[in-house]
Each structure stands twice: as structure tokens, then as C-alpha cells.
Design a protein that fits this description.
Elements lengths: L6 H23 L8 E8 L11 E4 L2 E11 L7 E8 L10 E6 L4 E6 L26 H26 L2 H23 L1 H98 L3 H4 L14
């Protein structure tokens, strides 16, 4: 029995076995074993992708659906990072789906999370140019926190600068002088405490007397108001009487005008007739006084004058 081993054959067998193992690992890692179809997508992100590496998982609502294929700087804008990733065919990536960069636990390993989008939104397809569809990328939680903290720190810095400008040497001296004046005023008020108490007591008594005087003056004010109302009513009555007097005066004026135009001519004719009657009565009286029988015999014939003969 030959105990000698052929080391060359053993070494060749070990090398061949190692090569087969490496090939199997590479074959499984490349996905050739599953032969599942993958759809390419891309996204542009405006933040650091620290912790994200090639073959990092791509998750859809927390479910692993793909992996990151390439990571590189956007050739059109050096401030952006362009990501290429592969997603299993049939994953419902919609037009309103968005991607966000997240970290896994405390390890800091980053991955890409896809949202589901709305049910009514159509599926995201490649354009006519044949390029991978672009999925919008929204800022991650760490980026939003960084922006918020930056804004807060800027505000704190601005407030600190304003406070430093407010409490400069001149303002501090003015504030110190004001505090000294306030302290002096407080000491002065403390020393005049008795006078202030007396003044407050006098003010309280004055207020009480004023209230009592107001209560006493209230009936007088009520009577004055009543008298004012009575005077107002008298004024209204006087105005009404004045209006009626004016109407009466207008009626009297109209009556006088009618008397002047109608009665006065008649009265003038009556006076003329009365004068004629008075003259006739006077003549009759004189005739009766000279010859009383003239009332029966009539008027006596006149005596002939010188050189005349009696008939």
C-alpha cells in the first residue's frame, strides 16, 4: 500500500473547488440564479448620500423591491447626486411616487424608500428617449432637520448679535443710571409712605363725598329736567298760539279789505243822503219857527220887494 500523496493533485483540486465557490457566489450575487426581470429608474437628490452604497436596498413601503445600481455626481449640476437603481418588474411605481433617503436603525446604513402613490395615478413608464424614468426625490428627515437647525441657529445668532448691539457700553451706562434713579425713587416713596397713605385716605373721602353729593343732586337734576320739559311744552303751545294768531290776523286783514272795497262807498252815499235830509229838516224847522201855520197852510208867499206889486 502506497502512503505517498500527490500534492500537486490535491492543490489543483483545492484551487478548482475555490474557483467554483467564487463563481457560485458571483452568480448568486448578480441575480443570474433567479433570472427575475428588473426595471431601471433614476432620481436626482440635492443632499449628501453619506452611508448609501452600491447594492444598497430599495424598499417600497418597507418591502425590499430592488437595489441601488449606480451613484454619481450629476454632470449638469455638481451640487446634485444622480442615483440609478433597479426595481423588480411589476412593482407599482406611480407617476406621483416619490423617493426619499432613509437610514436603517443606529448603524447609519442608508437605503432608498419609495412611496406608493395614489391608486388612480398611472404607472411610471420610460419616455420616448429610452432613458430610465425619473422618480422625484424629496428631502430626507435628516436634511429637513438640518435645515430647521440651521434656521434656528441663524435666528439665535441674529438674536445674539441684536442683544450685543442693544447692551453696548452706552446702553449699559444708561440702564445703570436708570436703575439708580429707580432705586432713589423707591427710597423717596418709602420715606413718604405716611403722606401717601394720608393722600389716599383724603382721596377716598373725596370720592365718597362726591358720590354722596351726586346722590343728593340727582333729585334736583330730575326736577330741572322736568322743568325743561315743561318749558319745552310751553314753547310748543306758544308757537301753536302764534300760528293761530297769525291765521286770525290774516282773516281780519281780509275782512277789512272787503269792508274797504264794498261797505265804504255805500256808507258815503248814506252820509250824503243824511246831510240832505238834515238840511231839509233844518229848513222846515226855520220855516215853522217863523210861520207855525205853514204846517197847515203851506209855505207863505214871499213879500213883494220895492217897486213890485202884490199879485
Amino acid at each position: 500500500m502506497d502512503d505517498k500523496l500527490n500534492y500537486a493533485r490535491v492543490g489543483a483540486f483545492v484551487l478548482l473547488l475555490g474557483a467554483l465557490l467564487v463563481a457560485a457566489v458571483l452568480w448568486l450575487a448578480s441575480g443570474l440564479g433567479t433570472r427575475e426581470k428588473m426595471d431601471p429608474y433614476q432620481a436626482v437628490i440635492a443632499e449628501s448620500v453619506a452611508g448609501l452604497s452600491i447594492d444598497a436596498p430599495v424598499k417600497y413601503l418597507g418591502v425590499d423591491v430592488g437595489k441601488v445600481d449606480r451613484i454619481g455626481i450629476d454632470p449638469h449640476n455638481s451640487e446634485l447626486v444622480r442615483l440609478h437603481f433597479l426595481v423588480h418588474h411589476g412593482t407599482p411605481v406611480k407617476r406621483d411616487s416619490v423617493a426619499v433617503l432613509k437610514t436603517q436603525g443606529l448603524t447609519g446604513i442608508a437605503y432608498v424608500e419609495l412611496s406608493g402613490g395614489s391608486a388612480a395615478s398611472p404607472a411610471l413608464r420610460a419616455g420616448a428617449d429610452g432613458l430610465a424614468p425619473m422618480i422625484p426625490f424629496k428631502p430626507s428627515l435628516s436634511a429637513r432637520l438640518e435645515n430647521v437647525l440651521s434656521s434656528v441657529l441663524n435666528n439665535v445668532d441674529r438674536v445674539s448679535n441684536n442683544l450685543n448691539a442693544l447692551f453696548d457700553a452706552e446702553n449699559r451706562a444708561a440702564l445703570k443710571s436708570t436703575l439708580v434713579d429707580v432705586a432713589a425713587l423707591a427710597h423717596t416713596l418709602a420715606s413718604q409712605q405716611a403722606v401717601i397713605k394720608a393722600a389716599l385716605a383724603d382721596a377716598a373721602r373725596t370720592a365718597a363725598l362726591t358720590a354722596r353729593a351726586g346722590e343728593q343732586l340727582q333729585p334736583v337734576l330730575d326736577r330741572i329736567a322736568s322743568s325743561a320739559q315743561a318749558v319745552e311744552r310751553m314753547a310748543d303751545l306758544a308757537a301753536s298760539a302764534s300760528a293761530r294768531a297769525g291765521e286770525t290776523a290774516e282773516a281780519a286783514t281780509l275782512g277789512l279789505r272787503q269792508i274797504d272795497g264794498q261797505t265804504l262807498p255805500e256808507l258815503a252815499r248814506l252820509m250824503a243822503e243824511l246831510q240832505q235830509l238834515a238840511g231839509a229838516l233844518r229848513q222846515l224847522s226855520e220855516q215853522t219857527a217863523v210861520s207855525p201855520n205853514s204846517l197847515l197852510m203851506g209855505k207863505p208867499k214871499p213879500q213883494p220887494g220895492p217897486g213890485e206889486q202884490a199879485p
